[in-house]
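REQUEST FORM: STRUCTURE PREDICTION
Request ID: SP-0412
Submitted by: Lab K.M.
Chain count: 1
Length (residues): 190
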Amino acid sequence: MADHEIRENIQSLKTLMIKLYKRNPSELKKSTSEDPEKMVNWVFNGNHNWNFEAINNAQGTDAIYLTFSEDYKGDKVLPFIVGIYTMLIKAHGGKKEFYLFDSVDPQMLYNASRNIETAVWKLSNTKDSSGKFFLLANEINEKESNLSFEREFGKIIGRTDFLAFTLSEKTERSITRIIQNVTTGLLIPF
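STATUS: Completed
RESULT:
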């Protein structure tokens, strides 16, 4: 189950990164002159061990916060996706492949899901001082929304939660449900 869940979540992140670059072409130009697919291939398959100098090697929640910083002038899609990816990998014990006796902490998975919910809320609601979204995702105009981003993030959250609750039942370890006010935009320390 864990193999399938992480593989599908990585595929969803690739899809989301391409979609974010297509909605925010100016962000892609800050990193490369290549097309979004080549950038995504380099990010997910390159020989960099998920350490990117362009974002000061930030990972997890630190990278996600960088996306919404007005001081950071670089490509904002990169730290957003890197942050979610590295947080998910950490929640899976640093692994992408699992064997019979491997274990994954269901609480870490649950916390990662809550952080993704908060990150998605920030993506849809946080604006800079001039009133512009840091990254365009869901909004097409004031009357229309493109909910394909929400759906794809929802799949990641749903798969991760399902694995967390399945593992908690299997290991008879309860998950501490954290009361989190998404609108504060604060991520659970990871």
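NOTES: The mean pLDDT is 89.
Reviewed by: T.R.
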